[in-house]
Design goal:
The complex is a heterohexamer, with three copies of chain A (443 residues) and three copies of chain B (112 residues). With 443 residues, chain A is an all-alpha fold. In chain A, 65% of the residues lie in helices and 0% in strands. Chain A contains 16 helices and no strands. Chain B is of the alpha+beta class. Chain B has helices at 13-22, 70-81, and strands at residues 2-8, 28-36, 42-46, 49-53, 56-65, 90-95, 98-101. A four-stranded antiparallel beta sheet of chain B has the order 2-5-1-6, with helices on one face. A two-stranded antiparallel sheet of chain B has the order 3-4. The longest helix of chain B has 12 residues, at 70-81. Classes of the chains: A mainly alpha (443), B alpha+beta (112). Chains C and D meet through helix 1, helix 2, helix 3 and helix 5 of C and helix 1, helix 8, helix 9, helix 10 and helix 11 of D. Bound molecules: adenosine-5'-diphosphate (ADP) (3 copies). One adenosine-5'-diphosphate sits between chains F (7, 35-39, 56, 58, 86-90) and E (26-29, 62-64, 101, 103, 112).
Chain lengths: 443, 112, 443, 443, 112, 112
């Protein structure tokens, strides 16, 4: 029978994670220029919508369907399954024959429900995983803000979850190459690699292909609405309780540890970001505090169910300077235009989190036989974590890179808007809509 | 008739409005503008990068008055809006050839 | 004993549904002109507050109190009970004598708790139902935006839940005329008829009585704050998880199916709305995507616990063109001023959803002996659904119409603001408040 | 074993309470002048972040650690424990030795988990209590808006939770002076004294030390963004479901009663506030409705699990005129500059709530042997409540007052910004950031 | 050439724009301003306190025209923007010494 | 002294500001305005309906300069703000009778 407590937990966790896509749209929208607000927000919303449909039809199957890569003795029996799931769970069923079978959808004694999840319904699992795919894809769009055409963007957010996110989920969580104890054996509680490194690095790759915005480096790109940035971050924090807590898949002590760590890591990162700003520029900013909050949430994501609260505080303090460095210095030095900083925040923060997990993981809580360096003195887990990051980087750079270049080749008119459109603003030019038509005061 | 245009600091808005009411100026039109001049901009910060803001918020008063009140007005504005720091603003005087009160159609000085 | 899982589920579902009223205020406020923002938002908030008080004092009793209309053999024994509940549960108690009885409020062995709900407390049930009545009433106000006086509005939102919403809830969910298997036998999982048709059609009726806004059809009514519209829709989506999921009244597979369907239907409707806009106007808008999201949520509401996820995707794709047609063409053709489109979105979407439920309902999941046409080839359920819609239309048009005309007659000065007030804007004229006093830049 | 239902409940309640800090930032930000928005919001966010870190490291221990003040016979055995907890649970462990012990963090059979909470993990309890401390500290900042330097503010929000909030929590909920049946024996379901009186009165004390804003009383301080105020209040309402419901610590009938009362009290207070405005000024405002909503939430906080729904309606009706009086008259009369009205709303509302609890408390639901005056005719509980309020006032005024004066003495340059900074606005002057750089239209 | 500056009520914006288009005025520049004058402000309410708002939203039209169209324009504006209530606004006429169309560099009347 | 008023496209704001600084123009005042003229508006879309927007965002520069710098300024502005497309904007020159620097009370050319 389903456990009502865990079912309630997972349904509501899903609801909170679903909210993260509009919350991200708000966060990104607040960070963008006033003339590009609608476009920036719409990129997240359309990504969310497309991915939602794709996930229930095909994505979940690619991520979690199919046979296992290894047999019970750890022999590799299926090379493809290292990277991909299968096509046996299309349309959110366990087999195409079940598409008209009611039992399969709701009962706890159906093969669908019992074989895979046990204490909560498979429908909830699909929705929960869908909500992850949605927000992850939305994160990527932040790197492309202010200059990508809408057609290519739609093309990208349709294929990216199929080619990058779902395989990554399979590799890490579907007993594939990275997560399986017979493979690399890296652990990732709630998506440091799958969600944050994958999206952040994809953002970087695509923004390199797309090129910098006109006047980048000379012009000042300031957020047009700081309160939106703060509120977006606050709603993301709320969503993250579902994100990290729900990744325990049961309402118990693991989930509890995950949310406590989530809370304190984000708080610590805000404090540390503020300290850095105080030292470097003399002034603490709200955009900075909001960015720090996000960085703290990112860094704890892979670790939240594995580490002690004091480690979470430390991780929050460690991530802020690294992300600050990436955003405030590296980006300008290397002159890539990661417009709203998905790479600087999610990519970099995710890498830091994945590695620190190898240090701070409490052995008893680890998914594998290995615990964090700090507790065991054995670097095995740390090495697995680093290998996991490198494999993720390799996969994401290759596949997203190929996808980006193909997109560029396919769209004959180019994937960038013209200089005129960039000048006018993407909102009126691409969408025939302005975000605040009445704020010239001429209502 | 003349139009006195004063570009001042936002913080002088309320006191100047009061002072002009006191001085029985009957009407004025106020708007928000941005100014560049000797006053240097300040730095805003965005995720660790400095952004130079060199258009500063200013408030513009437009007051149309009888010729002989102009110097009066200049005195009042100078007194109220002066802090002595760079950026206090400017007063410009322009000729006005005609004034009409829309409500009544009255023209000339009586329309003010 | 109460089940803690289901209790947790229902409490948090209630919290999410309660949020829907402020979320709707934001959505509507964003859609309105800058000079009418406060008035538009306040209509939703005051509706929410008044209905909250009314519901615990009397509404819940009218909806779910009283005797049954039919005996166990299906004989009609109480004609009144086809339409109304009773007055035996006033003040949120099971009998007026219990008003000072603590047990009745919190114990699981009290008559109050055990007789009606079983696994979760009756207090939660009352709060959950109250939150439905609140947001439903708030929806209606969207049709009246920009021109109704505040006094008549307060009068309307006080009586409407008593005369229309509570009876509708009784008819559909309180074994009354529409929902009872001995009556019409229509099924409505979470409120397609009760909430959406009732509110949307009431909006239409009242806006016809009220008349069009000055310059309607000539002047452009553009939303003053598109990000608010997006965020409002996002928060409504969050609330809808509680709305549709909670309507399973237990944290199990039904609730899981409901939320998965809710998610994918809204995603599909966004995608479809975007496609329509691309075809009709060449440009995809954020207000369009947000409207599509809502339409998808509306259409799946009556069906969410009855249909398979692939049907939910289809329903999302079907509802968007219908609502688009209603909003972009029908409204202008027939020249009614459904200001913020509650009719076009909730009314029309609700009708589509109710009918499609008769087609896609999986027989095993149906509340009655009949399943969807598609599965059974038997049109019985479909016919019941259509009859349910027609009955709802008849009841709502008659009662809301009468209420509107009486209101018009009662308020001697008329229920519309003067042209001057409409010109100046309702915010300063009616409420002495402007939404953004400092945005002329003169802070 | 942990109960999954209650664990789910408490985790999600925590998530909702965590959201209250950003929601409050939005509420306060909307109420502030346009040039002080960033500063106002950042005060709440930095308070939240600092307190989050402090709570897991030390705060929770001060509040709930240590020995009991009384032995089982009610003899006072530990005077310090009347006011403070201990230092035995630092770093979110049950003893410093456990800092590396995984079991202590997640298992239900660890001393950590089982000794204190029973049905849900101790990590969740710490996070839940942290979220309370966070928002309570953020409330205080509202009194200081528009004129305090950022350094002293940081100093205050670091020490206040340690010196005032944690001891108050201990006194009331940690079997200390106020809450223990052997002490004053006052009851406070979810924080009327601990949260609202403590924060509101601290705000008053600190704003007296800080002094009024330049031009206070002459200049008009209008909210710069009324929709933010509404949305902030709406999100606070959502959070309050977690706040009051979660204070039952189990998903049962008590929690249900708490949330029903929370809902109807806030609705009733909105209605009543609107009526007062209609009578006093002729016009109902949205800021008024939002303020009323908050007042209703405050007043029901201490009572929500103790009173019947009809009493909650009454309490909502009673609190609005009192708070209105405090905010609209008392403040101007006594000329203190409680900038965003934490005292008028939380302080005054909390006192009203604490006292009314002594009248309306259903005896069977009381934590002590005494019930409300209305039911028992015995004023014992009422007297305890009044004594509890007075003790709270004394403690808070003395400690916050001392803290404020010490802060003033420590910061040589003073704790107030200069007149120039006040004129220019704190956003650009203190933080180098403007809230809406592009809304001069020059994007 | 003259510049006709009209300060009118926001509600007259749309009709005046239409009327000017009708009258074949080729170009105009519109901005939001705040006005103080005979028209008294209104009271806004904030948590039970009254706040006097004495800067009222107005709209400013600036239209540069050939000298002989000035009186025409004054007529049109007066007709459209007049309600007869205090606060209808003012029309001012200023001399313009030169006009340039940036697109072509044309100067003088032809640039309008 | 003359006032040069230039109404230009928003996208020319930053380059023109830079160019004027280069040309050692000491001060200027900038504001947001809406323009109607030969340039046709664009269509915005609202729930399937088209909304004609015929007031276009423009930026107004006001620069008071010595008489002999006027033609200079016109050249600079024309060069920078010209795209050749309809809607580039206009430059108007107005007489200024007096200028005062509020900070010092200086009057005339020295005040600029
Ligand atoms: N030549 C000018 N033409 C138009 N506006 C000017 C001119 N010079 C200055 N201003 C306006 O006056 C404001 C104050 O001038 P600024 O040179 O900064 O200070 P100060 O007048 O104290 O030397 C500027 O921000 C600008 O708005
Ligand atoms: N002397 C003036 N100089 C500049 N603007 C003025 C002057 N007098 C009035 N105005 C503008 O005209 C508007 C309407 O004027 P007001 O005196 O209120 O009404 P009326 O013109 O009907 O008597 C004012 O709000 C202000 O913007
Ligand atoms: N006669 C006029 N008076 C005032 N402003 C004008 C006038 N004509 C044009 N403008 C301003 O100049 C802008 C550009 O003019 P427009 O006629 O659209 O383009 P162009 O100058 O390239 O022919 C307009 O949007 C308006 O702001």
């Amino acid at each position: 029978m389903f456990d009502t407590g865990t079912t309630a937990f997972m349904i509501l966790a899903t609801a909170l994670v679903v909210l993260m896509s509009p919350a991200l749209a708000l966060f990104y929208g607040g960070l963008s220029r006033r003339k590009n607000v609608v476009n920036t927000m719409l990129m997240s919303i359309i990504a969310m919508a497309i991915v939602g449909v794709i996930w229930v039809l095909i994505g979940d199957s690619i991520a979690y369907g199919g046979a296992d890569a290894f047999d019970e003795n750890g022999n590799l029996v299926n090379i493809g399954a290292l990277f991909f799931g299968g096509f046996d769970r299309l349309f959110s069923t366990w087999s195409l024959g079940e598409i008209f079978d009611a039992n399969a959808l709701v009962s706890d004694d159906s093969t669908l429900a019992s074989c895979a999840y046990g204490s909560y319904p498979s429908t909830v699992s699909i929705a929960f995983q869908a909500s992850f795919a949605m927000v992850t894809t939305a994160i990527v769009t932040g790197s492309l803000a202010g200059r990508i055409k809408f057609g290519p963007l739609v093309f990208l957010v349709t294929l990216w979850p199929i080619l990058v996110y779902a395989p990554m989920a399979h590799m890490v969580w579907g007993s594939g190459l990275i997560g399986s104890e017979y493979g690399i054996g890296a652990i990732d509680f709630a998506g440091g690699t799958v969600v944050h490194i994958a999206s952040g690095v994809s953002g970087l790759v695509l923004c390199l292909i797309l090129g910098v915005r006109r006047g980048y480096g000379l012009l000042s790109y300031r957020p047009h609405n700081v309160p939106f940035v703060m509120l977006g971050a606050g709603l993301l924090l709320l969503g993250w309780f579902g994100f990290n807590g729900g990744s325990a898949f049961i309402a118990d002590g693991n989930a509890g540890l995950a949310i406590l760590n989530t809370l304190v890591a984000s708080c610590a990162a805000v404090v540390c970001w503020a300290i850095i700003e105080r030292i470097k520029t003399g002034k603490v900013t709200l955009v900075g505090a909001s960015t720090g909050m996000l960085a703290g949430l990112v860094v704890i994501t892979p670790a939240c169910g594995f580490v002690a609260p004091w480690s979470a505080v430390l991780m929050g303090f460690i991530v802020s300077p690294v992300c600050y460095f990436a955003i405030a210095f590296l980006k300008h030095k290397l002159n890539y235009d990661d417009a709203l900083d998905p790479f600087g925040c999610h990519g970099v923060g995710g890498i830091v989190g994945a590695i620190l997990t190898g240090i701070f993981c409490i052995p008893e809580l680890s998914w594998t036989d290995f615990g964090g360096l700090l507790y065991t003195g054995d670097p095995s887990l740390l090495i697995s974590q680093i290998l996991g990051v490198l494999t993720t980087l390799a996969y994401v750079i290759i596949v997203t890179g190929a996808l980006g270049l193909i997109t560029k080749a396919l769209f004959k008119g180019g994937i960038r808007v013209s200089t005129e459109v960039e000048n006018e603003g993407l909102d009126t030019a691409l969408h025939g809509e302005s975000a605040y038509p009445a704020f010239g005061g001429l209502d | 008739m003349k139009k006195v245009e004063a570009i001042i600091r936002p913080s002088a808005l309320e006191p100047l409005k009061e002072a002009l009411f006191q001085a029985e100026v009957k009407g004025m039109t106020i708007s928000q503008v941005y100014g560049c001049g000797n006053q240097h901009g300040w730095k805003e910060l965005y995720r660790g990068s400095e952004v130079i803001v060199n258009m500063l918020k200013k408030v513009k008063f437009e007051i149309v008055v009888d010729d002989d009140r102009v110097s009066d007005l200049i005195d009042i504005i100078t007194k109220i809006a002066q802090t002595g720091e760079v950026g206090d603003g400017k007063i410009f005087v322009l000729p006005i050839e005609q004034a009409v009160r829309i409500r009544t159609g009255e023209i000339g000085n009586i329309a003010l």
